[in-house]
């Protein structure tokens, strides 16, 4: 899946993990295990404008996944990623807080006078307080382990062509509305649902 620095999924495959899966199955192993799934590449966020991610990040549809070092300065050559003031807790199926998700928008130009674009990013962070390992037996061990895990974040960047600016958070929060068109199979099943509703509404 990785050749000449590019990452591509085979035809017919779609990479669409949940927030919980991104944190537990990709970000946690990346930050705490010597061997981890390497389908998602490491990229320096400051070296890539979002429109250059295709072919370098793991791309599925118009969504681009990559690991990056955690940093406060998210500037690139032509702009910068700006947090939009929303942070969500990621809760596992066991009702445990396992991570955090921040929302960002890409701005052209220099901060703080940049111009917003239609590129958005979700940045996943580990909630280290809920993660225990053998090295966390002492306060010093926990502090060292937490610092180690905080070095990496998992990023999901995407362009919302139908988004008319940042009018509230709803425009950015809808993960399913990421600009991906419905496949012919999805449309087929939706048409079946409509036909079934019409049949059920007919008088007996």
Notes on the protein architecture:
- There is one protein chain.
- The chain has 204 residues and is an alpha+beta fold.
- It has a single domain (2-179), classed as Beta Complex (Metal Binding Protein, Guanine Nucleotide Exchange Factor, Chain A).
- Helices cover 23% and strands 29% of the residues.
- The protein has an 8-stranded mixed beta sheet.
- A hairpin with a 6-residue loop joins strand 6 and strand 7.
Write the SSE topology.
Elements: E1 2-3, E2 6-8, H1 19-32, E3 58-60, E4 63-69, E5 79-91, E6 97-108, E7 115-126, H2 139-149, E8 152-159, H3 170-173, H4 184-201
Parallel strand pairs: 2-3
Antiparallel strand pairs: 1-2, 3-4, 4-8, 5-6, 6-7, 7-8
The secondary-structure element order is EEHEEEEEHEHH
Main structural class:
alpha+beta
User: Globular, elongated, flat, extended or rod-shaped: what is the shape?
Assistant: globular
Report the major sheet: 8 strands, mixed
CATH top-level class: Mainly Beta
Overall mean pLDDT score?
76
Q: How many strands in all?
A: 8
Strand order, sheet with most strands: 1-2-3-4-8-7-6-5
Q: Taking Cα atoms only, what radius of gyration do you get, to the nearest Å?
A: 20 Å
- CATH fold annotation: Metal Binding Protein, Guanine Nucleotide Exchange Factor, Chain A
How much strand content do the residues show? 25-35%
Number of helices: 4
How many discrete structural domains?
1
Determine the N-to-C terminus distance. 56 Å
Task: List low-confidence stretches.
Answer: 1-5, 130-148, 163-183
């Amino acid at each position: 899946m990785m050749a000449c620095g590019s990452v591509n999924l085979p035809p017919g495959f779609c990479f669409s993990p949940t927030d919980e899966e991104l944190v537990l199955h990709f970000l946690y192993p990346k930050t705490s295990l010597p061997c981890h799934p390497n389908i998602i590449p490491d990229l320096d966020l400051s070296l890539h404008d979002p429109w250059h991610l295709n072919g370098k990040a793991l791309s599925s549809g118009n969504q681009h996944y990559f690991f990056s070092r955690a940093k406060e300065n998210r500037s690139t050559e032509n702009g910068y990623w700006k947090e939009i003031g929303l942070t969500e807790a990621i809760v596992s199926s066991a009702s445990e807080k396992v991570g955090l998700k921040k929302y960002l928008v890409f701005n052209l130009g220099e901060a703080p006078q940049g111009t917003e674009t239609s590129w958005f990013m979700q940045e996943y962070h580990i909630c280290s307080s809920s993660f225990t390992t053998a090295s966390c037996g002492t306060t010093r061990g926990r502090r060292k382990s937490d610092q180690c895990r905080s070095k990496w974040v998992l990023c999901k960047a995407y362009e919302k062509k139908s988004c008319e600016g940042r009018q509230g958070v709803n425009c950015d929060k809808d993960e399913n509305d990421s600009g991906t068109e419905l496949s012919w199979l999805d449309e087929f099943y939706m048409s079946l649902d409509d036909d079934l509703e019409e049949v059920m509404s007919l008088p007996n």
